[in-house]
Design brief:
By secondary structure, this protein is of the alpha/beta class. The chain contains 19 helices and eight strands.
Length: 483
């Protein structure tokens, strides 16, 4: 009986394409889906005549696999993952490997790794990025979980993954328990920020500069041959030029309300939990929330006043300013994402390879870009780099773009075009480079109304003081702590 190298559970778009990818790289694949007709469709369709085994029960799936068994779940995150793990565990032997390739919350993956390892099995939570095309042709893979499982999965994962121009697989071991899904969450958060910045730039071009879709298409085409070369710039170029059978630009027919599946929100919440200023992603999440209030915005547009004008300067020059502002803001987005990775690595005791993560993202994934090679270089030169802005390349790039960046944000405010992500990126930059921030006044306020204490410039760090500001508060103070 033919035995499979790996099993895939879940034959929706990502799962089905992953099966075809695996088989095309020389692996025999067993597949299972709760809706059995989807198995028949695959076996009799795209997988006809290929080394793909259709399994109609979970027991059949388990029996069809070589040991140690490797079963990859491509199913909806949340309760379905827990349920399927509970179905699998009694059927598996010690050392068998369960893999979650969905967009699971990293804290759930930490919990599941502990559960599966307690049953003498191994667990992998891996980010899979690149959409349906990536799953078919080569995704970016970010595996983490039980270290002992990696030796069994490495030959498979690195063969089916995308590869960089230098031939490196866009897949490497990330770290223990939830590290893989955490890095995928950061990837998705950065993706939120990148998309929002591009959308803000588009809105300024369309409504602030009065550019046509064709003109914007040409601009994004040029930009994709610059430092901004990336998948998201590339697809924006194509979207701007796309027309339906009636000759209408499809983009102009799409309702301006954005959806989201939660990974951006997870990233923002994790940043709050770890005390990291992830302003770009958070603004991008809130921008989607605001877009969803379509009916309210339509009503508000009829009663709330604001500027009603377009940019009246040199539009060609301003378009170049937009490019520089987008580039500088993109640097901030990655700087913040890496700050959050460093904070989480310290909290969860992960040994993240930051240059290696940039390499993983260089191909296959949604945020892939030439830009990532510079991030890889920065961390290879200095693995202890606290912030990308302190690397000479990125420091110089932001300084060069700074004047244009400020002009763009100023113009947006003056003509009433919202740029929450790009303007927040500039505010972060100014805050991060500030020798002094007004937090001294904030601490005085907290101490005034709540006796929360403060540190002093003329005393060692870690000593806390309280002032009886009104003469009525007494000398008792609250303990000093940070949530």
């Amino acid at each position: 009986m033919l035995q499979a190298d790996i099993g895939v559970v879940g034959l929706a778009v990502m799962g089905e394409n992953l099966v075809i990818n695996l088989e095309s790289k020389g692996f025999t694949v067993a597949c299972y889906n709760r809706e059995l007709e989807m198995i028949d469709e695959l076996i009799n369709g795209r997988a006809s005549g290929k080394n793909v085994i259709g399994c109609y029960t979970v027991e059949e799936l388990v029996k069809s696999l070589k040991r140690p068994r490797k079963i990859m779940m491509m199913i909806r995150a949340g309760e379905p993952v827990d349920s399927f793990i509970n179905i699998l565990l009694p059927l598996l032997e010690d050392g068998d490997i369960i893999i979650d390739g969905g967009n699971s919350y990293f804290r759930d993956t930490i919990r599941r790794t502990e559960l599966v390892e307690s049953k003498n099995k191994l667990y992998i939570g891996t980010g899979v990025s690149g959409g349906e095309e990536g799953a078919l042709l080569g995704p970016s893979l970010m595996p983490g979980g039980s270290p002992a499982a990696w030796q069994h999965l490495k030959p498979i994962f690195q063969k089916i993954a995308a590869h960089t121009d230098a031939g490196e697989p866009c897949c490497e071991w990330v770290g223990e328990n939830g590290a893989g899904h955490f890095v995928k969450m950061i990837h998705n958060g950065i993706e939120y920020g990148d998309m929002q910045m591009i959308c803000e730039t588009y809105q300024m071009m369309k409504y602030g500069l009065g550019m046509s879709n064709q003109q914007m298409h040409e601009v994004f085409k040029r930009w994709n041959e610059s430092e901004l070369n990336s998948y998201l710039i590339e697809i924006t170029r194509d979207i701007l030029a796309y027309k339906d059978e009636d000759g209408n630009y499809v983009l102009d027919l799409i309702l301006d309300t954005a959806g989201q599946k939660g990974t951006g929100k997870w990233t923002a919440v994790t940043a709050l939990d770890t005390g990291q200023p992830l302003t770009m992603v958070t603004e991008a999440v809130f921008a989607r929330c605001l877009s969803a209030l379509k009916d309210e915005r339509l009503a508000a547009s009829k009663v709330l006043a604001g500027p009603n004008k377009v940019y009246d300067g040199d539009k060609k020059l301003f378009t170049e300013h937009l490019r520089q502002a987008l580039y500088a803001s993109k640097i901030i987005s990655y700087a913040q994402g890496y700050q959050l990775m460093r904070a989480a690595a310290a909290e969860y005791k992960w040994k993240l390879n930051y240059g290696g993560i940039a390499m993983i993202w260089q191909g296959g994934c949604i945020i892939r870009s030439a830009f990532l090679g510079k991030i890889k270089d920065a961390f290879n030169k200095n693995p202890e780099l606290n912030n990308l802005l302190l690397d000479p390349f990125f420091k110089n790039a932001v300084e060069k773009a700074q004047d244009a960046w400020r002009r763009v944000v100023t113009a947006a405010v003056n003509i009433g075009i919202p740029m929450p992500a790009i303007s927040s990126a500039l505010a972060y930059y100014d805050g991060y480079r500030a020798q002094r921030l007004p937090a001294n006044l904030l601490q005085a306020q907290r101490d005034y109304f709540g006796a929360h204490t403060y540190e002093r410039l003329d005393k060692p760090r870690g000593e806390f003081f309280h002032t009886n500001w009104t003469g009525r508060g007494g000398e008792t103070s609250s303990s000093a702590y940070v949530v």
